[in-house]
Amino acid sequence: MSTDVPGETKPRRRCAKCGGDVRFSHREYAGKGMSAAVLRCAGCGDVIRDTARESAPVPQRHTSKRHRDLDAGPPANPVIDPEIAARLLESTRDSG
Question: Is the whole model's pTM more than 0.70, yes or no?
Fold first, then answer.
């Protein structure tokens, strides 16, 4: 069984200090909407920061319940119906 590597594969980056494989670690904020890839050597642990590039906009994955549309009005409250709300308002006005 042979392990032929296709010719189209991207050559792997190597560490300048030890020659080990350099792998992606995370992205780091570089200011003004830019971010830079941080690479780490698998052999010696050396950190290499790539050049800063403009961050691509990330689509929103879900809508948060806390960040609802303000034009939608107050959220529905199944516990307090209009009749109970009116009685609560009356009771607070009488005590003052």
Answer: no
